[in-house]
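Quality-control log, excerpt.
Job 1 of 2 completed; input and output follow.
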Amino acid sequence: MCKDDWGFGHGFAFRGFPFGPGQKGSWTGSGRGGRRRTQMFESGEMKFVILRLLKEKPRHGYEVIKALEEKLAGYYTPSAGTVYPTLQLLEDEGYVRVVETEGKKVYHVTPEGERYLEEHRDLLDEIVDRVRETVRDFAGGGIGEVQGAFAKLAATTFKRAWRRGPDDPALKRVAEILRKAADEVEQAWQTPG
């Protein structure tokens, strides 16, 4: 049986962070051996992950995106350009069937899809373990403190800025403060150890 627990509790993510830790569909944490990953999943792995999500319960495409984002504690959100073609592939291969529900395509795992998952359960467990390790490494390192500080800055800035008019002088002052802070952060990265 495939692992049900993806290993991320609700308190794991930094929920105050209003953006992802990189562009959607990308990953900027370190991979195995200290290598940097440019994507969360290797080629062909997404179909196993999506099929596993659909085995939990039938979902439409957007629900697949949100469920995966939640499973990975907000550290990764697959793009629609990844999810929808993968759903189509799974349908073409006979691993899922589509049921139109309230104008949405809801994907259900077929018996063939369940067999396919069972045949590849070791691979899926390996994928889940690797992704869990990668996210934990990313969250557990110094980036957690940086992310928390940035979340506070972003929340404070946007909470107040959107209420101001475009000519409010405070907006210009805040923009200048943020530019200076960005310059200081850049200098900090340039400074050795």
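Job 2 of 2 completed; input and output follow.
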Amino acid sequence: MSWQRKSLRRRLLLWLLGVLAIISVLMLFEVRSSASKAANEAYDRVLLGSALAIAERVVVVGEQLEVDVPYVALEMLTSAAQDRVFYQVVGPGNSFITGYDDLPVVDNKDIPKNGAPLFFDADYRGDAIRVGVISRHISGGRLSARFTVMVAETVEGRNNLINEMMTAAIVRQLVFIVVAGIVLWIGIGWGLKPLVRLEAALNRRTPSDLRPIEHEVPQEVRHLIDAINDLMKRLGASIEAMQRFTANAAHQLRTPLAAIQTQAELARKTKDPEEISKRLEHLNRSTKQTSRLINQLLSLARTHQEDESFQTGAIDLKRLSEDVTRAYVPMAVAQEIDLGFEPENPVSSIFGNEELIKEALKNLIENALNYCPKGSTVTVRLKQNTQHVVLLVEDNGPGISKGEQNKVFERFYRSETRDDEGCGLGLPIIKEIMERHGGSIEYRDMRPGSGACFILVFPKS
């Protein structure tokens, strides 16, 4: 039900009252057992008293037993108007002396010979009865014999007593549960007050207020508040990074767009064909730079897709690397650069998103081809060790200076010593792709002061 899902207070109350109800039911079973035992003990004592009173009136007359049943013996059993009383006295050999001759028969072996009473339940004339039996020895004249006295009564009085005790117990339990429910409702509400105050404080915050929550809360939710604070901290850092990224992206786009606008205006104003051609060349270069920047921004956005959109699977990195390298051979030939692929055999597969890994390798090969002079060598190598598959892109170009080797992985960082049209997003994109796959990217010089080697380290699938 919706109210159970929405209200923690009601859910706690429901659980606690449910536990109390179960305990109460178990207690009622115990009460009924105790009430039945108490009622039987009380009524059995009366049965025994009546049987003893009758046994005392058994006498020997000549060679037979006679009994004068006293009125007081039966009066003891008739205090409950709804109960009926029955008795029987039998002599040696189960010879009937007096009373009701059709009462249930008791085997003499079951009757204690030490004078202790025997009590049992039976049915008589369609009614449930409780029977008490005692056996006594009598001597007189020439007769010495054992006789048995049986006294029985219907059980309406006993059952009524048990029901009265059960009714009283049920009423007490219901009152207890109601009172407990009220106390628990108030107590739970009091215990949840810190959360209510916290809710009010959070409602007063503006969307941009990501300060840590410092309200006093119960220990049970302290870890939840710590987790929320950690989330808000990371969210704040993410928003700040996004704002920084947006500002940088706007700045980076503004430059080529301004150049496009300027070159277009200059081309429109001049009538010199050579000057127009020159302006169009600049315009084409600015357009390519803008297109490259937009494509890299889209690539960066793809690395931030939600997990539901992040399709993964087993990847044959050898096949992927060979296909990507082959696609750049025409570009390498045009720039007079020797581009090669040298895989180790065999190489284990990895687990990840194939398109993103392609994007990472493309960026590395493009960077190598763009920054290496004619006659250079660019090699894509594939290796593995016990835990990782390693993809390397090596070149013998100018490399990266020591002071810039850590900065090149920052967004929009562009080397001041290089005259290039890059936008500073290629390597940061690769870094984020590798982190998304549980891997890493490293850089090292091929030789002191020259040559570059970018290393992509993937965990084996």
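Post-run check on job 2. The first helix runs from residue 2 to 6.
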